Amino acid sequence: MRTLTLAILSVAALTACNTVPEPGPQPVVVNVPQMQTCTPMSALTRVTIPEKTETYIAITEIDNPPYEPIQNKQTMTRVIEEARTIFVNSEGREITDICNMDINPNGMTTQNR
Predict the structure, then answer these.
(1) Is 10 part of a structural domain of the chain?
(2) How many Cβ atoms sit within 10 Å of the Cβ of residue 30?
(3) DSSP string of 8-33?
(4) How far apart (Å, rounded) are the C-alpha atoms in residues 58 and 55?
(5) Which residue range is the domain that position 108 belongs to?
(6) Exposed / middle / buried, residue 86 (Cβ in 10 Å: 0-12, 13-18, 19+)
(7) Quick one: DSSP state of residue 39?
């Protein structure tokens, strides 16, 4: 019985010694002044890129026996790419991050409507 009591006491002594983990490094709080990453509208130039078109001749022909076939030739133009407006900086690079501007796909701003 004595060995059983001694074994229980030694197990109890070993389980009672839990180690408490040391606290990890505390996060460092750095106050960085807020910087403006966008470009103000006053520093930009509005550039309009014209539409790209393709011109071709469409020929339709209708059989007209016993006479010559009836031919119709039309010059047609279709728009491949719509005209658009971009904004460039003083170096000529296109800028898309513009401060306080809501630009729709046509390049017009809500302030100019």
Answers:
(1) no
(2) 5
(3) HHHHHHHHH-PPPPPP-PPPPP--PP
(4) 10
(5) 50-113
(6) middle
(7) B
Tokens of 43: 């520093």
Q: Which run of H or E residues covers position 79?
A: strand 70-81
Asked whether the beta carbons of 90 and 104 are under 8 A apart, the reply is no
> Mean pLDDT, the chain, as a whole number?
79
- Whether 43 is in a domain gets the answer no
For residue 56, what pLDDT is reported? 94
Pair of tokens at residue 100: 């306080």
Residue 110: which pLDDT band, with cuts at 50, 70 and 90? very low
- Is the distance from CB of 36 to CB of 86 less than 8 angstroms? no
How many structural domains does the chain have?
Answer: 1
**How far out from the chain centre does Cα 24 lie?**
38
Is residue 24 included in any domain, yes or no?
no
> How far, in Å, CA of 54 to CA of 39, rounded?
36
Residue 66 belongs to a domain: yes
CB atoms within 10 A of CB 97: 9
Q: How far apart are alpha carbons 101 and 38 in whole angstroms?
A: 10
User: Residue type for 74, please?
Assistant: Q
